[in-house]
Batch of 2 targets.
Target 1
Amino acid sequence: MRYMMMHKLDENLPGAFNPSPEFMARMESFMKEAGQSGILLAAEGLCKSSKADATRITVSGGKTTVTDGPFTETKELIAGFALVDVRSHEEAVEWGRRFSDVFAETIGEVEVDIRRVYEGPEHGQSA
């Protein structure tokens, strides 16, 4: 089963988008372990919405709105992700806890969403 672990950070939180050497070392160690275990499919961090090309496209009521960053609400921006292939939801949660610990131990605050990747109907069940 594939799961995406998306971490959200507040762009105004010191160090959130300017990682310290300690954070980078811990994240590198975590990613190396996940890679060696065979579960890691992909992982990337995202640039701060005010420092790079960031655009939000919203469609509501048949109208499309394109808004360039930086975005006014910066507390829940997706800052990166890891895509993993694990045996169960419980295993995804365990890796997610370890993933969030890297942030908690260095930056202090993070929110990680763990979402199963849609892989089509499984034996007549809906996703």
Target 2
Amino acid sequence: MYRTDHGSTMTAATTVPKELVHKRAAEEVLLTGWEATGPDAYRVTARWPRDRADSGLYDPMLLVETVRQSFPLLSHAAFDVPLGHHLVWDRFSFALVPELLLADRPAERDGDEVQLDVVCQDVVRRGNRVCALTLSYMVSRAGEPLATAQTRFTVQAPAIYRRLRGDHADAATAMARAVPPGPPIRTARPDATTSQDVALSATDHARRWQLRVDTSHPVYFDHPVDHAPGALLLDACRQAAQALCSPAPVLAVAMECVFTSYVELDEPCLVEAARLARDPAGRDRIGVTLHQGPDGATSCSTVVTVVPHPDAPTH
């Protein structure tokens, strides 16, 4: 997860309206503009503030948040989805070039320009309203390919969403009932400067942790929500991979995630990790699953591909 201190030189005047990316704090908006480039094709621009690069390296979760902000932007601005509708993740994946996360590359003084070329596919409409779509991304930085990403999500009108969520639909009530976060485990985020950025706490099992839901987090809980945000779940999966690989520091360079149910705030959620077969390039892969409820149903399953962190000592 990217840094949560807000010393950025970005201002609301240089970014898209915060409502279009579902943010309350203007300083958390990363996107700077968008335009249509063809039928169901768009170019979205963003700026990454230099003060969000720790030790000269941007966190992969900053890429995730940049892509995530484009979902509501394009839904509202390009597909006329009304504000107040809910975007519900089905799946999300990305793969990046780690060398292009280095923050000392040529860039403007106050931040790095990032470009997202987006193609919308498998658009499902109900009447004149979009109710589901797939977005495929080519992400570049300084004109060089940085990453690919893809997501599928559905769009729910407020009345339908309330019916689906039942007694969990009210965000203020859900946050008030949230399970207090347990003690953070530093092996999940050895670089964390605050416990807010650690998404896991220990259990009695070496490869199982409890999800830490800190509703005071300024990014994940920028505004009231009725369930654990998808971006928090992705960060928890990334941190579980790091905890499993500890003490060796690793960098998540790819993730493939499937969301199968909401992670509720008012009951514990367990996060489990296991090593998988290496990918064709010889990189380590970690399978991470999130479980919740009395029957331990899977809420989210992710494959995280990692490489040695560039800051790791070599021998």
